[in-house]
Amino acid sequence: MANLLALIQNETLKVWKKKRFAVVVLILLILIPVFVYAQMKIAQNSAEKFKTDWRAELQSRITSNTNALSNDRIPEEWKKWRRALIQQLQYYLDHDINPQTPNAVTFTRSFMDNSVTLFIPLMVLAIASDLVSSERSTGTIKMLLTRPVRRWRILFSKLATLTLYVSLIIVTTVMLSYLISGLVFGYSGWGAPVFVGFQVNGADVDTSSVHAVSQGVYLLMQAGLIWFSAMVVAIIALMVSVLVRTLRRVS
Q1: Separation CA 124–CA 121 (nearest Å)
Q2: Where do the domains of the chain lie?
């Protein structure tokens, strides 16, 4: 166990000395303010273009959906969705929250949604791509293989290190997004409701399981799913790195 912990510590320090995680943080510190500025300009333009009273608009939507509940032609599952929507809109009115106004939580949600398809996988690949194959170029692979340590322990230490840095990337992205955007939009919005539970079956949408959770809970769920997808990318990159090392040895 002690040898395994020492291997993990050694791998963690090697990745840290490459300064790739520092580059990831630097990229985030550059990109996030750019997106915050863009979101701020969009919010200002929307406020100037649509100068209607948002409270009256929300009350009108509540009335419209309440009246629709008495319609027998609407399926019960859609009525359940409308009841949840009414609760959400009423929450905004009771707490004097304009749902069109961005805040740090909604910005973080949006930034994570847009990052999961390309940006976060690229950051993960920057760390994971040569985790094994780089040992040959640095000459440390010979030292590792000559030590009385099983090879699975070496690979496991690299996987554990990769898991640590993937988790750091996700946590750092969420924290920087929230902290930087909060300077402009404010740090409120954790308790605002978000709809979850939609089930898509082909062209049909099942709303029978729709319910509201707070934005804080939703952000935690979102971060967990993004972590899982990032780990899949990281494991594939680690496998490719091992394969490249094997092919080089064979050739």
Answers
A1: 5
A2: 2-49+101-250
First to last CA, the chain: 35
- Measured CA to CA, the distance from residue 160 to residue 151 in angstroms comes to 14
Cα gap 45→31, rounded to integer Å: 21
CB 103 within 8 A of CB 120: no
What's the burial of 230, exposed, middle or buried (CB within 10 Å: 0-12/13-18/19+)? buried
Instruction: Find the mean pLDDT for residues 187-201.
Output: 75
Residue with more model confidence, 42 or 221? 221
- pLDDT tens digit string along 198-227? 665 654 556 667 677 888 899 999 999 999
Cα(110)–Cα(88) distance, integer angstroms: 19
Closest listed residue to residue 221, CA positions, set 122, 113, 88, 117: 113
- Say what the pLDDT of residue 53 is: 72
3-state SS, residue 97 = coil
**CA atoms of 171 and 219, how far apart (whole Å):** 11
Cα separation, 3 vs 23, whole angstroms: 30
Instruction: Give which of 203, 193, 250, 182 is closest to 39, Cα–Cα.
Output: 182
Q: Which of 115, 102, 110 is nearest to 28 (CA)?
A: 115
* Whole-angstrom distance, CA of residue 156 vs CA of residue 159: 5
